[in-house]
Structure formats: structure tokens, C-alpha cells
Amino acid sequence: MKDLVGSRDDSHLPAALRGLRIPLIGSPLFIISGTELVIAQCKAGIIGSFPALNAREADGEPPLLDAWLTRIKEELDRHNQANPDSPAAPYAVNQIVHRSNGRLERDIEICVKHEVPVWITSLGARVEVNEAAHSVGGVVLHDIINNTFAHKAIEKGADGLVAVAAGAGGHAGAQSPFALVREIREWFDGPVALSGSIATGEALLAARALGADFGYAGSPFIATEEANADGDYKQMIVDSGAEDIVYSSLFTGVWGNYLKGSVRQAGMDPDNLPTADPTSMNFSSGSSKPKAWKTIWGSGQGIGAIKSVTPAQALVDRIVDEYTAAGSRLAAEFQS
């Protein structure tokens, strides 16, 4: 099937990644991505995702991840039965495979049980995680920030890559998307999603022109009605632009992009932040942030395009319209 612009056939992709309304993946957002947002993204025609660690139950209670996956599957099944001509896109679960994630083995078992169609792995490539996904027909996309990590991910069995370039929200690389995607495409012809300021249809089309199969967008979805984000966080996304982002390793031990306004609210100077010790990373409880830094809010540089808090469906509709219009403009220029 060709996308709305008609520029590329997706039949070369794994079945779970074909037939999207537009080639876009909603990236997994710590705390923010829950069942409401994922379901809305999938119904809108893009892959919705969430970190497994977002599903946190109280001690002694059944695994919340199991309940979340049951709800997502049932809701999408109902949607598909009622809308056979516009079925929902598949969903994805993000696994933090860092050694400090004590839930990893349990969460993998739950994802295998539910036959999760798309797995997104972060902070380390693990052969056993890829094998678990493949045992139920899942597709694994591993996020990387440079070509060296990309090679390692594919060598360990990942099916595709998420190229996290400069300007992406949360944990992000420092390389230009032009350089990063080019180097990957010199040796890898499998699925590639590009992350880094993908907030408009024009940016999505540019990602495709670079050689990526998908855009990977997170920050725009923070300012949606379904996002599990503080209202002030959503408004700061709306009110901010690229100049309001700071790149720092202080808050998690991994370099990432954050809203300067939230750093100031925490009593720190965003222009004079120290560098963190990378050994401080700890994902045993879902985050390495001290409690005092829970209100340090991640964001990518593309948020200047976000003008209001909207339903996820409306955001996807805008990106679809921009993507189609941009493709038509370029097609007209090439034909003239």
C-alpha cells in the first residue's frame, strides 16, 4: 500500500508496520503515554506506544501492564469491527532494557502473552528480548543515537531502528538527522524511524526524503487531551519554542532535551547545569530522576508548531493535511 503522498510503497516492511494512514509512530513518553493516548493514536491511524514501566501497580496487586494490554487490544478490536474501512494502526510497547530495570523479565513475559505486535527497545540491545518478541511474531525497533549503536542493535537481532537525532525530546542524540540517517542507509535497508523535531507534516515528509520509513513523534502528543501530563506541562509546550529547550545529562545520567521553564521552576539555571555521572542511571522504579526533579519536563525542539491543546485525532489530522499538501507542492515543482 502507498501512503497518502504516493511516494513510496510499504510492501517491503514487516506486516505489522504496513498500511498506516501516514508513516508516523507516536513515541513512548515516560508517565505521559497511557492507554487513553495509545488508543487515540492507533484509532487516528498511526502507531501508538507506551513504556511498559508506565503501568505501575501497587504492591501486591496484579500486574497493571497485563490490564493495560487487555484494554488496548479490546478497544482496538471494537474499533476495527465498527470501522472495517479505516482500521486502527497497531500498538507498540517500549521496553527499557537497561540492567537496572528489575521488571524487564516479567514485562517481557506479559508482552509475549499478549503477542504485542511492535516492540521498541531502549538503553541497551539484548538478544533475549528480540528473541522473545520474534517468538510471537513481533517486530523489534531499537532506538539508537549513532551508527555504532545501530550496528550493535541489528547484530543482536533487532528488525529495525529508531534514529534519535538532535532535537528529539527526552533522551536524544546530538547528531544531525541528515548525517545519522545517511550513515545508517549506507548498510541497512530495513525499517528506520527518525526522531527529532517531527511535529509537522513537512517534517515527516523531510524524514521520508532522507530515507527514513517513518517519523517518530513524541513532544506534540504531550499537548493532547488524552496525554497523562500535568496541565501546566501541556501549556508550557504550547507556549514554548526551540529556544526554550536545554540539552542536559543532569536529570537521568543520559543526555536529553528539557523545557527550560521547568528547570527554572525547580530553582535551577538552565544555562548553567552540571553534567551528571552516567553511572547514576537507575530504572528499577521506572525513572532515574530524584523526586525533586519529577517536574523537570522533557521536550523536543519542534514544539513551536504546537499552538494549542487538542485531541490526538486532531493533531494527527493536521499532520496528515500538512504531509499531503507538502508532497503535492513538491510533486508540482518536479513536474514543472
CATH-level-4 superfamily name of the largest domain:
Aldolase class I
* Radius of gyration of CA atoms, rounded to a whole number: 19 Å
Instruction: Name the overall outline.
Output: globular
- Average pLDDT value? 92
- What's the CATH architecture name of the largest domain? Alpha-Beta Barrel
Helical content stands at: 25-40%
What is the structural class?
A: alpha/beta
Largest sheet: 8 strands, parallel
CATH class type of the largest domain? Alpha Beta
Query: What sequence of helices (H) and strands (E) makes up the elements?
Result: EHEHEHEHEHEEHEHEHHEEHH
Give the amount of beta strand, in percent. Answer: 5-15%
Describe the structure.
The relative contact order is 0.15. The protein is globular and about 50 Å long. Helix 1 (35-43) runs parallel beside helix 2, helix 3 (104-113) runs parallel beside helix 4 (127-135) and helix 7 packs across helix 11 (312-335). An eight-stranded parallel sheet has the order 1-9-8-6-5-4-3-2. With 336 residues, it is α/β, with parallel strands linked by helices. The protein has two domains: 15-229 and 309-335, Aldolase class I (TIM Barrel, Alpha-Beta Barrel), CATH 3.20.20; 231-301, no CATH class. Helices cover 35% and strands 14% of the residues. Strand 5 (139-144), helix 5 and strand 6 (160-164) form a beta-alpha-beta unit.
